[in-house]
Amino acid sequence: MNHFPIFLSVEDKAIVISGGGEAALAKLRLLLKTTARLTVFAVQPASEIEDWATDGRLELVRRVMTRADLSGAALFYAANDDAREDARVAGLAKDEGVPTNWVDNLEQSQFITPAIVDRDPVTVAIGTEGTAPVLARSIKADLESRLPRALGPLARIAATFRRRAMTLPAGQKRRAFWSEYFETAGPRVYDEAGEDALEPALDDLLARHDQDDRADGHVAFVGAGPGDPELLTLKARRALHEADVIVHDRLVTPEILEIARREARIIEAGKTGFGPSTPQSEINALIVAHAADGLRVVRLKSGDPTVFGRLDEEIDACEAAGIGHSVIPGITAASAAVAQIGQSLTRRGRNSAARLITGHDIAGYADHDWRTLARPGEVAAIYMGKKSARFLQGRLLMHGALADTPVTIVENVSRPDQRVIGATLATLPHDLDAAEVSGPALILFGLAPRSAVSAIDTLKEIVQ
Ligand code: SAH
Questions:
Q1: What is the reported pTM?
Q2: The last residue of a domain, from among 301, 331, 361
Q3: Which position among 249, 301, 304, 386 bears the catalytic label?
């Protein structure tokens, strides 16, 4: 992030604009929404600027700008539609130490102006560091259509009421009150009776929420999917928004944790197959203790919580403590991995069952029904299989699996650093080492990427 987004206080501050044409007009349309004092220097101003000056919305000075004009300015826009004049005035601003936006000159600008969705006092600023204005515009259009028009008045009235709502305990209770106001009660009252009815409506709502008992704590076991935040379910997203505390696995990506509320407490309960781990008993105690305090706990697990996630142990702990719980499924690594290579886990005529197996369990390398797995056409998605690859290979070959059975390793499924490594049972341990697979990896036994399969089919056809 080369540009850090901030919201600058400009109330009664001077903002100076040099230029009176298209570039200046574009910036002025935004700046006129602020409470800043605007001064425009233009020899030949556009008629809109003249009108704004007549209306007292800005001060228009009909000459070129000098350094003295910048004294005390908070921001400066070089917007002359003329590179030489922009260079001259930007130079003056630099000497005067005034932060400058040189229109259409990213390198020479100290700040850039984002695309803005305006529901004052709610403002959304969208920036692409100047790389993709088209993208910023489409995000803006999307948000414009999604954010209710009444958001501004709702937020304004909420601000005047904030102190009174402090009588509700911070956390879940107070949030429930505000959620109801912003999401249901507020928009309804605004539509029916307008802005003036909002404050009495808040009074009623507060009285009702005041009488309620303290909220009960709850643990939601939520599947975070394989890493791409777009592979979260809507329920998972909502649970993340509502959580007071999030206890997550090491495999959960930062992009997904970003979805949590700023105030949520985020705790990493590291659990990796090898290396340092948080003992399961500590994780159980942690989620139970927070929920017992009346908080909403999300126990966020990579993939699907019901697949190699030690879910039952944590549910048992909740039940023993009388804590309510729910499970929100997620996309397990196997589903995401086969999707990436264009294959199915099951296929008519090839395999009528697919196994999800683990490379190791509490006892060490995990034993499986090798004889069945070794049969041609069988498919298994092997979790936590990197370290046990040689063991798996040995067992499968010993039980008659063909050495050229396709095996595909998918590392960091759905993440930007995803890699697909095509191998065979014969080459699996070697290929894993050679590729230096260091991220989480799923081994798909019995499957090759679709592209590789069709290439082989084509070759077969040619040979025949
Ligand atoms: N509950 C998880 C699995 C946890 S066990 C799920 O449903 O996906 C951890 C193992 O899952 C890892 O060792 C790896 O084999 C696999 N895994 C999890 N996330 C992965 C990812 N993004 N890419 C590849 N494999 C992954």
A1: 0.62
A2: 331
A3: 249
Please check whether residue 144 lies inside any domain of the structure.
no
Whole-number percent of the chain with pLDDT over 90: 74
Nearest in space to 428 (alpha carbons), one of 460, 387, 383, 373: 387
Question: Measured from the CB, is residue 226 less than 6 Å from ligand 1?
Answer: yes
**Residue 349 and residue 453 in one domain:** yes
pLDDT in tens, 184-195: 678 778 877 888
Rounded to whole angstroms, the Cα distance separating 378 from 445 reads 8
* Helix (H) / strand (E) containing 14: strand 14-18
Tell me, in angstroms, the distance from the centre of ligand 1 to residue 429's CA: 19
Residues 117 and 124: beta-carbon distance below 8 Å: yes
Residue 454: what pLDDT?
Answer: 66
Q: Which domain holds residue 351?
A: 335-457
Is 131 among the domain residues? no
- C-alpha–C-alpha distance, residues 58 and 61, integer Å: 10
Run of H or E including 407: strand 406-411
Three-class DSSP category at 228: coil
Q: Clarify whether residues 253 and 340 are in a common domain.
A: no
Instruction: Check if 304 has its Cβ closer than 6 Å to any atom of ligand 1.
Output: yes
9 occurs within a structural domain:
no
Sequence-ordered list of residues with C-beta below 8 angstroms from that of 219, at least 6 positions apart, any chain: 287, 288, 291, 297, 298, 299, 314, 318, 323, 324, 325, 326
Q: For residue 129, is it within any domain?
A: no
Number of independent structural domains in the chain:
4
| 251, 183: one domain | no
375: tokens are 């049969």
The per-residue pLDDT of the chain, averaged, comes to 91
Is the domain of 198 the same as that of 264? no
- 283-289 CB contacts, 8 Å cutoff, 24+ apart: 283/247, 283/314, 284/313, 284/314, 284/317, 285/317, 286/247, 287/219, 287/247, 287/314, 287/317, 287/318, 288/219, 288/317, 288/318, 288/321, 288/323
416 CA distance to ligand 1 middle (Å): 16
In CATH, what number is assigned to the domain containing residue 261? Answer: 3.40.1010.10
Measured in angstroms, how far is the CA atom of residue 442 from the centroid of ligand 1? 7
